Amino acid sequence: MSKERIAIYPGSFDPVTLGHLDIIHRGLEVFDGLVIAVATNVAKKAMFTADERVELIQEAVGGDPRVVVDHFDGLLVEYARDRGAVAVLRGLRAVSDFDFEFQMASMNRSLLPEVQTVFLMAGEEHFYVSSSLVKEVAQLGGDVAHHVPPGVAEALRIRIAERGGAR
Ligand code: COA
């Protein structure tokens, strides 16, 4: 029997959106399994802790046995090697994603050539969605229910209320 082909889907996921879930569902049509890997991006100020982000993703993927949700520190390629992944999965929304993704994929390939980066195109309805925009809209009292899973909408509501409410 052929070996399972696992891909790592890394990101900040602060928080996970329906756009990310769209890439996860598409990724599961290509790979046997996915490891959704929550990274700590030091350049970004997170609203949710890594553990909270992992929990929100777990709830959103609903216990699919082909999906593992984890948190990692350090280099993505080393994590991918440790996990025995054949690929890193990334979603492309618009041309503006390309420069950054091209740089990351090239750097990752120079570090670990045997792991491929595979890009899947996000659904058009998610082209303009990002975690920052979702947080900004929620913080200003806007409705983000069409862009995030229900658990995330609730977590945003609670976190924003803890911080003094929408303004
Ligand atoms: N739907 C909705 N939003 C999406 C999306 C999709 N399909 N795909 C990406 N995004 C958004 C994210 O929400 C995020 O929005 P934000 O900037 O408002 O938070 C943005 O696009 C890009 O985020 P993400 O995909 O999470 O990338 P990132 O820049 O936060 O993280 C890592 C990139 C984690 C993959 C990268 O930093 C990494 O590999 N880190 C590990 C350390 C390492 O190896 N560094 C060397 C890399 S060469």
Structure report:
- Helix content is 43%, strand content 19%.
- The protein is α/β, with parallel strands linked by helices and 167 residues long.
- It has one domain (6-127): HUPs (Rossmann fold, 3-Layer(aba) Sandwich), CATH 3.40.50.
- A five-stranded parallel β-sheet has the order 3-2-1-4-5, sandwiched between helices.
- The longest helix is centred in the middle third of the chain and has 17 residues, at 95-111.
- The radius of gyration is 16 Å and the shape is globular.
- The model has no long low-confidence stretch (mean pLDDT 95).
Brief summary:
This protein has helices at 18-30, 50-61, 76-83, 95-111, 131-139, 150-162, and strands spanning 6-11, 33-39, 67-72, 87-92, 116-121.
Explain the layout of strands and helices.
Elements: E1 6-11, H1 18-30, E2 33-39, H2 50-61, E3 67-72, H3 76-83, E4 87-92, H4 95-111, E5 116-121, H5 131-139, H6 150-162
Parallel strand pairs: 1-2, 1-4, 2-3, 4-5
The structure holds coenzyme A.
